[in-house]
């Protein structure tokens, strides 16, 4: 079955950088999109970034655009989220989700994703 495992979270100072990784296994082909979402305490899970199956197309939430970069290495079945210029409001549990890519479309809603990891905590100190 499909498994999704996030890693790379931790404590970072405001203005610093962090790289999150999402290791995916269980798919026969790489025809799946990957999305990063985050959830802060007391808040709903929100969309951060998504990447299509080939890695050629990406889409970001407005508040991370220009600071975060999503990329994927299909040879290693891994997706990365490089986070720069981190702010206190970026602190959250970050989740990676996967879904079969059925068209030229960006998946930005969490209900569109079929498989999720357990999440990785990102803490930003001011």
- Biggest beta-sheet profile: 7 strands, mixed
Total of DSSP H or I helical runs spanning 4+ residues: 0
The SSE string, one letter per element, is EEEEEEEEEEE
- The helix content, as a percent range, equals under 10%
Task: Give the strand content.
Answer: over 45%
* CA gyration radius, whole angstroms: 14 Å
Q: Tell me, what's the shape?
A: globular
Mean pLDDT over the residues? 97
DSSP summary, beta strand count: 11
Distance between the termini: 41 Å
**What are the segments in which pLDDT stays under 50 over at least 5 consecutive residues?**
none
The SS-based structural class is mainly beta
What's the gist of this structure?
The chain is an all-beta fold.
Keywords:
126 residues; mainly beta; 0% helix; globular
Write up what this structure looks like:
Helix content is 0%, strand content 50%. Strands 2, 4, 5, 6, 9, 10 and 11 form a 7-stranded mixed beta sheet that branches. Strands 1-3-8-7 form a 4-stranded antiparallel beta sheet, with no helix packed on it. The chain contains no helices and 11 strands. It starts with a strand and ends with a strand. With 126 residues, the chain is mainly β.
Spell out the blueprint of helices and strands.
Elements: E1 3-7, E2 10-13, E3 18-25, E4 32-39, E5 46-51, E6 58-60, E7 68-73, E8 78-83, E9 92-100, E10 115-116, E11 120-125
Parallel strand pairs: 2-11
Antiparallel strand pairs: 1-3, 3-8, 4-5, 4-9, 5-6, 7-8, 9-10, 9-11
């Amino acid at each position: 079955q499909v498994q999704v495992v996030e890693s790379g979270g931790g404590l970072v100072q405001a203005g610093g950088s962090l790289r999150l990784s999402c290791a995916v296994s269980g798919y026969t082909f790489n025809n799946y999109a990957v999305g990063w979402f985050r959830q802060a305490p007391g808040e709903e899970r929100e969309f951060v970034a998504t990447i299509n199956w080939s890695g050629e197309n990406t889409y970001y939430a407005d508040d991370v655009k220009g600071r975060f970069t999503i990329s994927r290495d299909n040879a290693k079945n891994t997706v990365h989220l490089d986070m720069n210029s981190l702010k206190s409001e970026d602190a959250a549990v970050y989740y990676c989700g996967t879904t079969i890519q059925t068209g030229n479309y960006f998946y930005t809603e969490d209900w569109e994703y079929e498989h999720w990891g357990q999440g990785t905590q990102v803490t930003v100190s001011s």
